[in-house]
Amino acid sequence: MAKQTGIWLDYKEAFLIELNDSEASVQHIPSEVEDFHVKGGSRTKQPWGPMDKTSDTKYLGRRATQIKHYYARIMEKVGDADELFIFGPAEAKIGLEKTIRASKAFRPQLLSTETADSMSQNQMVARVRGFFRSVV
Known about the structure:
By secondary structure, the protein is of the alpha/beta class.
């Protein structure tokens, strides 16, 4: 039997659901991607002087690096699976799908990527089981 794995993810956390013969195991992966709230600049001591600005590029570059490491951790955990199903509420699932398709050495076959709302762990397991039953 093929090892089937479902991934529910957003930018805060990911849940890996691995289906075995009669049971499912759920693994939680926190993302460690920070939310940045850039504050405004500061004035000089001169009245009506210029204002220093803050650069968004350093914050966005840092976030992109953190997301890249997050996807790499997820791909490392599911590397021994045969079939993969990705679902979740945010754009993170699309980014993971693109990263998987760009990777030449990633072994599991990505079957589908679907939009899903926030769910409890039992609902996630049921969704993954239902998906793989419909595929077979």
